[in-house]
């Protein structure tokens, strides 16, 4: 069953039934000021950091679901309704929610009144702008009472939810005209405040939640709204809110516009006050003025649309398959931008207070984003590398506001360092900007410790080389990519974290085949980079270790039909046919096949055949098989999940593209394509009632074949799946791959495809690439004609900036 449809022309997903199986959300803003918005206008806003600078309050895990947001109540006679259906849930005559590229439009209609709400964060603006258009479609005059509503968060979203003994006494607001200012803690250590304004005079307001709502009421029946009477309350402590009250008269056929601005302002210390106790509102007034007419809002919205036109023009495919085209041209790229901005911090599954920016996550997100705004990818690489330690290890996470490593989680995830190479190589291949390697970057943000970025890459490689176990394979540390395979943790205490606890690690023999494959695959990128720079000695040095690692995998990492997953603390095999459960794992199959380890001896083929046999199911590839049914302290968190969920045999979508790419190494285009479609949202839209989460973005996890409800998905939006599937489809299936010296063409497609067309902007030039498949093969470029002339090999040279180049590829 579907709850809406794709409108590709407008690049929107249109939800036509508000009762989606889970809130289907969107993100507003893509730099500094952000909002999450659900299809019923739930969600919250923050500046830069969802933990430290939360503007509006949100209730997690609430009953009912998705409580709190920016609400507009319309009282028409005795009927009170919301255009987004919630919170009153008054049945609507018409409802539509259009999630687009960084904007959402919600249209509700009731008793002849249409409310059309457009929400967006204008480019380079620290505010969310909402344009509400009310239209009287009936044949009688209407007298409406309109109430806006948001609830302020007292900045730190974590303490806001726990430190009530303080919070209930600190809240402060100011009211001036139609603007309500939230200034809690401004008089001491904060130099920032927020405001909520409307561009017309108001007939009343409220800023104290209890007065507005009534202590025992829900959002669905605030006293002020139900009675149609604002209280003009001024909050002192407790829970400050912002609500405007506006009386609206509409003749038949008449429309009126209201523009609401929810903004954030920082003042320099010497300009904090207008007078004693009165905040300096000038910067807020400037923001309000920028959006105080419908024309100004239209212009800002057109700029946002244009921005996305340009971004999405960098890579477009015409394949003849609408689902593929909409994923590649629109939604996958959009999700890559979102994961780049948020890492794993704020979604309807990530609270925004738990995790900051992941070291590994953010590096991976780069491959999905770097073609869009390379300058921001560059900045991100420097930020990430600045949290590395001198020995190559790194903080696992850092806070976006401070850019400092997060001490609560620390380091010791031994795959992290290699991801820095992965991200940096992707950036250089896309841009050709080798100068980034000369940037002076500190260790652990310590002034004076700066070394060129290239040195950070070197210590990353060395971190693996210096941490090898008894089989010459990489020591796993706290965990590798799989945060839940904790081989040194041995936890029996429910109060400790699996991921930050190492109860035994001294003398550990726990080794990872995932890192081994990663070292071979990503190490190659490093070696190529060194050769490109003429650093042959360093290239030879590291190549030697890669060769040794390859041999170690073949000798100690092969289980007969697949690659082992690991060796545990005691040096026993993990992910072996000898094990009772968890005999085969996806991560090592993915990485070792991507690296092509043992290709010549048939290992890659055998491994991938085993993946098909043991890990595949209707909804995608599960992480391990058989699922664990008992807690194994030697393995940690992985065995805590019920069978079929998350890292215990769930379909952890993130790693499916590793296998897809592995299949392209073998040239098996059908298989790669089959796996791609299985987890690709547009292809599962029809079963939205089972799948539950948004059909326009990837989710982290779908319940696997051993689960109670196979096919039910969770954790949508913020997942490395976005970048990895982008990487797999564009670079390995469609096969258009940035390289240090040009654009490599190497498709791997189902044999029955006739071809496709891709337009790719690369280093300032446009390549219009037509791939034809007259002999119906999966892989192998027969000829390439560039602007009428055949070229040698399959790497398109870097063409002059601004040039448009016609490329004809025959397979
Ligand atoms: C984390 C990733 C990790 C994955 C598998 C995700 O939640 O963000 O860093 O690789 O889980 O454990």
What does this structure look like?
- With 811 residues, the protein is of the alpha+beta class.
- The chain has 19 helices and 44 strands.
- The strands form twelve sheets. It has a ten-stranded antiparallel beta sheet with strand order 1-2-9-10-11-12-19-16-15-14, covered by helices on one side. Strands 6, 7, 8, 13, 17 and 18 form a six-stranded antiparallel beta sheet that branches. The protein has a six-stranded mixed beta sheet with strand order 22-39-40-44-41-42.
- The mean pLDDT is 97.
- Residues 344, 358, 360-361, 481-484, 647 line the site of beta-D-glucopyranose.
Strand order of the largest sheet: 1-2-9-10-11-12-19-16-15-14
- Radius of gyration, Cα only, in angstroms? 28 Å
State mean pLDDT (0 to 100 scale): 97
Shape descriptor? globular
Structure summarized in a few sentences:
By secondary structure, the protein is an alpha+beta fold. The structure holds beta-D-glucopyranose.
Attribute tags:
811 residues; alpha+beta; ten-stranded antiparallel β-sheet; 19 helices; 44 strands; binds beta-D-glucopyranose
Helix and strand arrangement:
Layout: E1 4-7, E2 12-15, E3 25-31, E4 33-38, E5 45-47, E6 54-56, E7 71-76, E8 79-81, E9 94-100, E10 103-110, E11 113-120, E12 127-136, E13 142-155, H1 164-170, E14 173-176, E15 179-182, E16 192-198, E17 204-208, H2 209-213, H3 223-227, E18 240-250, E19 255-266, E20 273-275, E21 278-279, H4 282-290, H5 294-312, E22 315-318, H6 322-342, E23 357-358, H7 359-369, H8 374-385, E24 397-398, H9 416-431, E25 440-441, E26 451-452, H10 453-465, E27 511-512, H11 513-532, H12 536-556, E28 566-567, E29 573-574, E30 584-585, H13 586-594, H14 603-615, E31 616-617, E32 620-621, E33 624-625, E34 651-652, H15 656-666, H16 669-679, H17 681-684, H18 688-691, E35 699-702, E36 713-716, H19 721-733, E37 736-739, E38 742-745, E39 755-762, E40 765-772, E41 783-786, E42 789-790, E43 795-796, E44 804-810
Parallel strand pairs: 40-44
Antiparallel strand pairs: 1-2, 2-9, 3-4, 4-5, 6-13, 7-8, 7-13, 9-10, 10-11, 11-12, 12-19, 13-18, 14-15, 15-16, 16-19, 17-18, 20-21, 22-39, 23-24, 25-26, 27-28, 28-29, 30-33, 31-32, 34-35, 35-36, 37-38, 38-43, 39-40, 41-42, 41-44
Helix pairs in contact: 6-7, 6-19, 7-8, 7-9, 7-19, 8-9, 9-10, 9-11, 11-12, 11-13, 13-14, 13-15, 14-15, 15-16, 15-19, 16-19
Beta-D-glucopyranose binds at residues 344, 358, 360-361, 481-484, 647.
């Amino acid at each position: 069953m579907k709850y809406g449809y794709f409108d590709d022309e407008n690049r929107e997903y249109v939800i036509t039934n508000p009762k989606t199986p889970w809130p289907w959300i969107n993100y507003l803003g893509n730099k500094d000021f952000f909002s999450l918005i659900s299809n019923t206008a739930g969600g919250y806003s923050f500046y830069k950091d969802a933990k430290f600078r939360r503007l509006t309050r949100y209730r997690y895990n609430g009953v009912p679901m998705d409580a709190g947001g920016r609400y507009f109540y319309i009282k028409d006679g005795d009927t009170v309704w919301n255009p987004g259906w919630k919170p009153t849930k008054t049945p609507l005559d018409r409802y539509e929610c259009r999630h687009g590229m960084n904007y959402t439009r919600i249209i509700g209609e009731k008793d002849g009144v249409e409310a059309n709400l457009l929400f967006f964060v204008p480019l380079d603006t620290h505010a969310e702008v909402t344009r509400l258009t009310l239209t009287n479609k009936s044949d009688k005059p209407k007298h409406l009472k309109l109430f806006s509503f948001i609830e302020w968060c007292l900045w730190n979203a974590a303490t806001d939810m726990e430190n009530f003994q303080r919070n209930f006494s600190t809240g402060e607001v100011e009211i001036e005209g139609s603007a309500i200012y939230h200034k809690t803690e401004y008089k001491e250590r904060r130099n920032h405040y927020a405001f909520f304004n409307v561009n017309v005079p108001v007939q009343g307001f409220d800023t104290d939640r209890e007065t507005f709502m009534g202590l025992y009421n829900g959002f669905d029946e605030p006293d002020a709204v139900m009675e149609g009477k604002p209280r003009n309350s001024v909050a002192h402590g407790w829970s400050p809110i912002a609500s405007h009250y506006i009386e609206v008269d509409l003749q038949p056929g008449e429309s009126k516009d209201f523009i609401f601005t929810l903004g954030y302002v920082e003042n320099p210390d010497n300009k904090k006050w207008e007078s004693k106790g009165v905040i300096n509102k000038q910067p807020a007034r400037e923001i309000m003025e920028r959006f105080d007419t419908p024309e100004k809002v239209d212009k800002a919205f057109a700029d946002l649309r244009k921005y996305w036109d340009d971004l999405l023009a960098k890579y477009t495919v015409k394949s003849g398959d609408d689902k593929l085209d909409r994923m590649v041209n629109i939604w996958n790229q959009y999700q890559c931008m979102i994961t780049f901005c948020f890492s794993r911090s704020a979604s309807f599954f990530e609270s925004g207070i738990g995790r900051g920016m992941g070291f590994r996550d953010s590096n991976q997100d780069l491959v999905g984003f770097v073609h869009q705004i390379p300058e921001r990818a560059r900045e991100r690489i420097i930020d990430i590398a600045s949290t590395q330690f001198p020995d190559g290890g790194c903080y696992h996470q850092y806070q976006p506001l401070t850019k400092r490593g997060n001490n609560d989680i620390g380091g010791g995830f031994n795959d992290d360092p290699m991801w820095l190479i992965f991200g940096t190589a992707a950036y250089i291949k896309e841009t050709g900007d080798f100068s980034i390697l000369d940037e002076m970057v500190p260790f652990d943000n310590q002034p004076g410790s700066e070394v060129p970025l290239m040195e950070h890459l070197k210590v990353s490689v060395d971190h693996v080389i210096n941490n090898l176990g008894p089989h010459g394979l990489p020591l796993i540390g706290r965990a590798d990519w799989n945060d839940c395979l904790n081989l040194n943790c041995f936890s029996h205490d429910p109060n400790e974290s699996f991921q930050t606890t190492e109860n035994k690690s001294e003398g550990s023999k726990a080794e990872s085949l995932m890192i081994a494959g990663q070292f071979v695959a990503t190490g190659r990128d490093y070696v190529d980079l060194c050769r490109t720079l003429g650093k042959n000695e360093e290239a030879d040095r590291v190549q030697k270790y890669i060769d040794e690692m390859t041999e170690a995998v073949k000798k100690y990492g092969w289980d007969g039909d697949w690659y082992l997953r690991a060796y545990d603390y005691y040096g026993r095999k993990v992910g072996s046919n000898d094990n009772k459960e968890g005999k085969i794992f996806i991560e090592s199959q993915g990485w070792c096949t991507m690296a092509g380890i043992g290709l010549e001896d048939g290992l890659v083929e055998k491994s991938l055949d085993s993946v098909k046999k043991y890990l595949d199911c209707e909804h995608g590839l599960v992480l391990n098989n058989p699922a664990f049914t008992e807690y194994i302290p030697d393995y940690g968190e992985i065995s805590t999940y019920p069978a079929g969920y998350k890292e215990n045999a769930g379909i952890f979508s993130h790693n499916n593209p590793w296998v897809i790419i592995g299949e392209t190494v073998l040239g098996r285009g059908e298989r790669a394509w089959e796996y791609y479609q299985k987890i690709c949202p547009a292809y599962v839209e029809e079963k939205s009632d089972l799948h539950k989460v948004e059909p326009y973005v990837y989710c982290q996890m779908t319940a696997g074949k051993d689960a109670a409800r196979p096919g039910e998905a969770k954790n949508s939006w913020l997942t490395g799946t976005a970048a990895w599937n982008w990487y797999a489809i564009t670079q390995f299936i469609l096969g258009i791959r940035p390289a240090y010296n040009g654009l490599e063409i190497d498709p791997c497609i189902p044999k029955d495809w006739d071809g496709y067309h891709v337009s790719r902007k690369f280093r300032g030039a446009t390549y219009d690439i037509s791939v034809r498949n007259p002999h119906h093969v999966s892989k192998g470029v027969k000829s390439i004609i560039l602007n009428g002339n055949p070229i040698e090999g399959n790497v398109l040279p870097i063409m002059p900036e601004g040039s448009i180049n016609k490329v004809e590829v025959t397979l």
